[in-house]
């Protein structure tokens, strides 16, 4: 059906929506006709992100809320807000996550860095899944609006959950491995309720933070030499994959480690 909007009428929540992959996904969701609730621990950045969506898509229904995903009461309030406003929840993009600057190897990672990373990256994803499942169980198919029962939950892991990295970030890598394992089990447990779970595994993205850190040709090449495509990814390339996983176009895709990494994970030595 040409011109069909892939998320028309779907109610979608994005955590960590104040910037980066979350904001790009908000823009793609709005472009595809979704009703979008952006949330973030940073209330100022998420309000600004919602303004960006409204200015680019004046007809889109957009809302924003401050939410720390490591606090269950915040996560429940976020889901309740979407359901109270729009009557249902079809998609949750569990995107919020941190990589702490003091994250290190087994010897040098401090317990507080470990605990904070697991609280946001793992417990935050669990809370999101829990409250989204409770909401999605109430969904009824609505053929007129093109809505189905059940829903789609996309949890953000990382390529480092599949591969080890010699640049140590042990708490982060362990947290993303937990997201993969949790996503698989949830996909099995809730598949018959029509609720799909997939884990997005981004490769390294060209963000200001990463580029500021890789600020010499040697540091850059140390990373790029491993990527078959010879470049970093763009946040919008993740966002487009999330639209697919959120939409009914992926209706039989469940429990996957969905790698969007330019082929990094598949590579022993690159072509040149
Ligand atoms: P980002 O830092 O630009 O965005 C993350 C957002 O999460 C920020 O807006 C931040 O305020 C928010 N956030 C942090 N703690 C939070 C909390 N407790 N509750 C709610 N929101 C919180 O990062 P990004 O690059 O857009 O990353 C998004 C996701 O993608 C993360 O889960 C990250 O681990 C993952 N990822 C990123 C890359 C990359 O190269 N950028 C690679 C693999 C995986």
Structure explained in plain terms:
The protein has about 270 residues and is α/β, with parallel strands linked by helices. The protein has helices at about 20-30, 45-55, 70-85, 110-135, 170-190, 210-215, 215-225, 235-245, and strands spanning about 10-15, 35-40, 60-65, 90-95, 150-155, 195-200, 255-260. Strands 3-2-1-4-5-6-7 form a 7-stranded parallel β-sheet, with helices on both faces. Helix 4 (about 110-135) runs parallel beside helix 5 (about 170-190). The model has no long low-confidence stretch (mean pLDDT about 95). The structure holds nicotinamide-adenine-dinucleotide. Nicotinamide-adenine-dinucleotide binds near residues 18, 19, 95 and 97.
Summarize the model shown.
This protein has 272 residues and is an alpha/beta fold.
**What is the C-alpha radius of gyration, as a whole number of Å?**
18 Å
Proportion of β residues? 5-15%
Tell me the number of strands. 7
Helix and strand composition category: alpha/beta
What hetero molecules are in the model? Answer: nicotinamide-adenine-dinucleotide
Output the strand order for the largest sheet: 3-2-1-4-5-6-7
What summary fits the major beta sheet?
A: 7 strands, parallel
Which secondary structure elements does this structure contain, and how are they paired or packed?
Elements: E1 11-14, H1 20-31, E2 35-40, H2 43-56, E3 62-66, H3 72-86, E4 91-94, H4 111-136, E5 151-156, H5 170-190, E6 195-202, H6 208-213, H7 217-224, H8 235-246, E7 257-260
Parallel strand pairs: 1-2, 1-4, 2-3, 4-5, 5-6, 6-7
Helix pairs in contact: 1-2, 1-8, 3-4, 4-5
Bound molecules: nicotinamide-adenine-dinucleotide (NAD).
Nicotinamide-adenine-dinucleotide is lined by residues 15-16, 18-22, 40-42, 45, 67-70, 95-99, 120, 124, 156, 158, 202, 204-205, 207, 210.
């Amino acid at each position: 059906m040409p011109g069909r909007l892939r998320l028309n009428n779907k109610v979608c929540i994005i955590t960590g929506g104040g910037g980066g992959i979350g904001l790009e996904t908000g823009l793609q969701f709005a472009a595809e006709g979704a009703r979008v609730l952006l949330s973030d621990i940073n209330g100022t950045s998420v309000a600004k992100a919602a303004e960006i969506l409204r200015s680019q898509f004046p007809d889109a229904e957009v809302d924003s809320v401050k939410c720390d995903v490591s606090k269950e009461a915040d996560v429940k309030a976020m889901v309740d807000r979407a359901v109270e406003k729009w009557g249902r929840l079809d998609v949750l993009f569990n995107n919020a996550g941190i990589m702490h600057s003091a994250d290190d190897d087994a010897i040098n990672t401090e317990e507080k860095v470990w605990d904070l990373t697991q609280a946001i990256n793992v417990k935050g994803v669990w809370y999101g899944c829990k409250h989204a499942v409770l909401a999605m169980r109430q969904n009824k198919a609505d053929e007129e609006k093109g809505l189905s029962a059940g829903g789609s939950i996309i949890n953000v892991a990382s390529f480092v959950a599949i591969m080890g990295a010699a640049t140590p970030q042990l708490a982060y890598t362990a947290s993303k491995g937990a997201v993969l394992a949790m996503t698989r089990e949830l996909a099995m447990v809730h598949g018959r309720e029509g609720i799909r779970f997939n884990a997005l595994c981004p490769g390294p993205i060209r963000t200001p933070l990463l580029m500021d850190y890789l600020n010499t040709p040697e540091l850059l090449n140390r990373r790029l030499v491993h990527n078959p495509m010879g470049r970093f990814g763009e946040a919008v390339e993740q966002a487009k994959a999330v639209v697919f996983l959120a939409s009914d176009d992926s209706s039989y895709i469940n429990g996957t480690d969905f790698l969007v990494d330019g082929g990094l994970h598949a590579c022993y030595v690159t072509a040149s």
